[in-house]
Amino acid sequence: MDDTTSGAIHVVCPNCRAVNRILSKRFGDQPACGKCGGQVLIPKPVELTASTFDRFISKTDLPVLVDFWAPWCGHCKSMAPAFQSAAAEIFPKILTAKVETEHSKELSAKFNIRSLPTLVLFNNGREQKRISGAMTTQQIVEWVKQSS
Question: Measuring CA to CA, which of 39, 47, 56, 127 is 20 to 30 A from 16?
Answer without folding.
Answer: 127
